[in-house]
């Protein structure tokens, strides 16, 4: 019910978008997000995009974790 | 798939586990309140990977599970009105009311359609102007904004034949009540997608009034382990606070556009939760200016709250007091094919998650 899945916007028509998810396409209403663009990943929930995924934050999280791994390797 | 696979990376999982094992010294009980978390934690076998100091509990975050049987009874009553179509999320079809399910009613001739989005109800209402369309709305802050958009659309299209039966609920009052009820919890793994909408401020009261840590967490293994690590660090250092692990999807301010729409359409009411009973100001009802769309106000629906299934301990499981395996019916009489209680029906219910992913 609260499941929301990251899906990529492939086209936009007004407040409606088509998003791609694991090879299939779905409708996503854009009424709940602002400034969504083609290529953005959105969280898809009951036919609505409820948030645009922040690529910068996603990258930072990954970078921080990968740096720790690198440091650990160096210390070994 | 992007934004999924990288959070299942074995190297990162191993790193986080190592850090958790090193950090966790004192026994700690962490509760996940979101049904999506319950499923992910079971599916990825997280509890088996953690040191014995960390105990994970499931809380009241499966909307289907906490909604009373009377809601299904009301939807069924509506489905019997002549010239009616019920539009519903698939999740509700098999949930038992006191004597039937929507699925059974459909087999017996009621017109019940599963919809992918609540907006589909508006299309159906336009297509069948002589019929009444009822949408049973269920879910927390993640789901209610979609319903708000739907109601606003009904208003814009000047529809007279669309009605909402609302069981929408908000999460924080239930989380606070659990602590008050003396359920032993040391920290909350806070719901990621609820927080996408609400932002992180809704948990401040839990930190300030009860001294419990709150970490808003995503749904993949790396997310969950990082969230657990953050909570353990907070606990070990005696410094509870609200933190966001799931930063790619959650902003401290939330989704302002969605919050505005919620505020425009809904107001708070006292609401009944399975396991918790009446929780003040925890449910959403339509504001007066939308009353023409309110199924409760426009149709005679007063039904008594029916009794729970005998022997079903869903209520105690939802409070984190018992595990599904403590139920005598679990896996024997009660299975996903033949569910006795709501916690087994719902794909996000604890009983179904335990049953599906038991080792
Ligand atoms: S196993 Fe079935 S009967 Fe037992 S608590 Fe869970 S839902 Fe209820």
Give a quick summary of the entry.
The complex is a heterodimer of chains A (76) and B (359). By secondary structure, chain A is an alpha+beta fold.
Describe this structure in words.
The complex is a heterodimer of chains A (76) and B (359). Chain A is an alpha+beta fold. Chain A has one domain (5-74): SH3 type barrels (Roll). Chain A contains one helix and five strands; from the N terminus they run βββββα. In chain A, strands 3-2-1-4-5 form a five-stranded antiparallel β-sheet, with no helix packed on it. Chain A starts with a strand and ends with a helix. In chain B, helix 2 (35-43) runs parallel beside helix 17 and helix 8 (144-156) crosses helix 13 (256-265). Chain B folds into three domains: 6-60 and 172-244, HypD, alpha/beta domain 1 (Rossmann fold), CATH 3.40.50; 64-170 and 256-298, 3-Layer(aba) Sandwich (Rossmann fold), CATH 3.40.50.11740; 314-358, no CATH class. With 359 residues, chain B is an alpha/beta fold. Iron/sulfur cluster is lined by residues 312-314, 317, 324, 327, 329-330, 334, 340-341, 343-344, 351 of chain B.
């Amino acid at each position: 019910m609260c499941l929301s899945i990251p899906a990529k916007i492939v086209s936009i028509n007004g407040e409606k978008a088509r998003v791609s998810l694991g090879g299939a396409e779905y409708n996503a209403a854009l009424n709940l997000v602002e400034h969504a663009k083609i290529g953005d990943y959105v969280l898809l929930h009951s036919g609505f995009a409820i948030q645009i995924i922040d690529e910068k934050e996603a990258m930072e999280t990954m970078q921080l974790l990968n740096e720790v791994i690198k440091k650990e390797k160096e210390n070994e | 798939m992007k934004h999924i696979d990288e959070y299942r990376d074995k190297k990162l999982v191993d790193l986080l586990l190592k850090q958790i094992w090193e950090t966790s010294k004192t026994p700690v009980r962490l509760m996940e309140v979101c049904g999506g978390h319950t499923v992910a934690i079971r599916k990825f076998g997280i509890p088996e990977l953690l040191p014995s100091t960390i105990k994970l509990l499931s809380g009241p975050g499966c909307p289907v599970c906490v909604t009373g049987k009377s809601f299904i009874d009301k939807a069924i009553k509506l489905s019997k009105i002549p010239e009616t179509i019920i539009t519903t999320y698939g999740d509700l079809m098999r949930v038992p009311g006191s004597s039937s399910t929507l699925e059974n009613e459909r087999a017996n001739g009621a017109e019940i359609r599963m919809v992918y989005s609540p907006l589909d109800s508006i299309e159906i209402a336009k297509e069948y102007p002589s019929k009444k369309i009822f949408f049973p709305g269920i879910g927390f802050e993640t789901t209610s904004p979609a319903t708000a958009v739907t109601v606003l659309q009904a208003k814009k299209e000047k529809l007279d034949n669309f009605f909402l039966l609302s069981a929408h609920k908000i999460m924080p009052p239930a989380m606070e009540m659990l602590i008050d009820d003396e359920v032993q919890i040391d920290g909350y793994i806070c719901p990621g997608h609820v927080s996408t909408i609400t932002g992180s401020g809704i948990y401040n009261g839990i930190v300030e009034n009860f001294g419990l840590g709150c970490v808003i967490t995503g749904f993949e293994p790396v997310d969950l382990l990082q969230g657990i690590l953050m909570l353990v660090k907070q606990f070990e250092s005696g410094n509870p606070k609200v933190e966001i692990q799931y930063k790619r999807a959650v902003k401290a301010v939330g989704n302002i556009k969605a919050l505005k729409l919620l505020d425009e359409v809904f107001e708070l009411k006292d609401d009944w939760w399975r396991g918790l009973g009446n929780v003040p100001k925890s449910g959403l009802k339509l504001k007066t200016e939308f009353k023409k769309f309110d199924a409760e106000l426009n149709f005679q629906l007063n039904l008594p709250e029916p009794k729970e299934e005998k022997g079903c301990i869903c209520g105690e499981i939802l409070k984190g007091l018992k595990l599904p395996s403590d139920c005598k019916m679990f896996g024997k009489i009660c299975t996903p094919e033949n569910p006795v209680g709501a916690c087994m029906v719902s794909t996000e219910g604890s009983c179904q998650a335990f049953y599906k992913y038991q080792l």
